[in-house]
Amino acid sequence: MSIIVAKSLSKHYGTNKALDQVSFEIEDGLPTALVGPNGAGKTTLFKLICGFMAPTSGEIEILGHKAGSNSLISKMSALPQDSLLDPNLAIITQLTQFGQLQGLSHTKAKHEAIKVLEIVELTDAAKEKPTALSHGMAKRVAIAQSLIGEPELILLDEPTAGIDPSNAKTIRTLITEQRTKSKFLISSHNLDELEKLCDQVLYLDNGQLQQSLSIHQHSDSFEFLTLTLKGSENLKPIIKEIQKIPLVSNIVQTQSNELSLQYDSEHSLDFEVQLLTCLHKKQCQYQSIYKGKRLEDKLFS
Amino acid sequence: MLQTSEPSTLRNTLLITAFDVQKLFFQRRGVIAISCFSLVWLFLLIYPIHGAVELLNNPNFKDFIIGFAQMSQTEKLLNWQVPELTVYWVIALYLYPMFSIIITADQFASDKQRGTLRFLLLRSNRDSLFFGRFLAQMLIQTILIALSLLATIFLACYRDIDLLLPSLSSSGFIVIALIINLLPYTALMSLLSLHANSARQATLYAVLFWMLTSLGLAILNYFFPVTEFLQFIKPGVQLSDMLNTQGAGVLTYSMLPIIQAVAFLALGRVYMQRSAL
């Protein structure tokens, strides 16, 4: 089932083309990542999906409805970038009001507000005003509002940007927990984070869709394995040793201590055993073995 | 997904209205604003209104005014049964529009700048948001008018309890006339507040609007007298005529502000629908 369908979507600010003829389809399932450099058009695309602005040309359909349609209330929600709650109203009051606007009664809306605050572990801050919260806590409250009513689609625009590792981890955990209930579209610069959370990736640059790929999809009969070794000593001896493994078809050094190995996918287990034997033989310790290519390598190599 | 019925535009409009009214009466900022408003009216009631009533009860003063301003311009104003309401009417007619410009200046500006409107737009359409906030401002002003009028009636009854019935019969017309007068001011401020980045900027836009339209229309009218009708785009152009009215007569000039309000609301709605938030 298609969650979002964009056809020739363009948004121009004067002569600047923030989005230029972008077409894509996002299916239901695991979260989808939206990546790209600053100014690539990610936030503009989010705003068009949310109906905060109209496209210059093209069409966008969300869950079978036009962006900004009344039918999307309760079905779609978002964490808009750089948006703050009303500083004069208590958090619980505002979240209850949001629930009421989504069609819930006052009592149900209040229960729902408490429930989403529990999810982001901020029940204690319910009666506080947004000004009393730290940046990380404010972000979690903003994510909490997007969970009200368990919408089918949730857009998160840079959910962990500018917040400390502890809060970022809490946010990643809650997305992992919620991703079975809702479809997430997440924009972020943190590729490691997206790798853990998402399946599909849309790569935008200069307002154009450069790539649309699946993180966990393997190409043809070959599989990749990313081997990160401890320390950054000379890798030539170990590369020479790995090349002797008959199942290996290609080795690329991606970083000073990282190798990307291509091998025959039919003999995956045999290859892994042979690789570890090889490392043992050369008395070489590994830091990590990652099945597949890193997202960074997929996008930029 | 939690099962909910699709909220209607009307339901969400009324909810947004209720949220904004609650914000005024249950938040510290709102309570401070009401306290300031009450203090201003207390001052007006104790000094100008109470003082003027003594003068208006003096037949010699009445004769002097009639002779000075000509009978036709003041006869209805001076024949109000409750002198307190006469003075209240004169003050409220000019004071409330000024209040209106100040208190309705932040209908959208701060929330737009802060991004708060986006949280609401995810759950209601733009019409609900626009008209909900406009209605909230009208309701708040109605409450303020009612409060000040009740205080004036109390003042009149304190002097003479027999004035209660005539006061109540006139006050209904006064409330309706004042509310109608405030419609175009509030609608204009809805439009300006959508464009502005802060309440202060919206107020400045309002001042510019009145200065430029007054000056521009005066020049235009000087060279092209046929354009005199354009004066009617300015809210409050009927206020001086409304001064010398009485009883149900205060509603005589209601059509113009209603038309102005409809025009400003239509412009505001178009702006709201087209703007990026």
Automatic annotation (TrEMBL), chain A:
Keywords: ATP-binding, Nucleotide-binding, Transport. Gene3D superfamilies: P-loop containing nucleotide triphosphate hydrolases (3.40.50.300). Residues 4-231 form the ABC transporter domain. One of its GO terms (molecular function) is ATP hydrolysis activity. It comes from the Bacteria. SMART domains: AAA. InterPro entries: AAA+_ATPase (IPR003593), ABC_transporter-like_ATP-bd (IPR003439), ABC_transporter-like_CS (IPR017871), ABC_Transporter_VariousFunc (IPR051782), P-loop_NTPase (IPR027417). Pfam families: ABC_tran. This is ABC transporter ATP-binding protein. It comes from Parashewanella curva.
UniProtKB/TrEMBL annotation, chain B:
Pfam families: ABC2_membrane_2. It comes from the Bacteria. One of its GO terms (molecular function) is ABC-type transporter activity. Keywords: Membrane, Transmembrane, Transmembrane helix. The chain crosses the membrane at residues 31-50, 87-109, 130-156, 168-192, 204-224, 250-272. GO terms for cellular component: plasma membrane. The keyword Transmembrane applies. PANTHER family: ABC TRANSPORTER PERMEASE (PTHR43471). This is ABC transporter. It comes from Parashewanella curva.
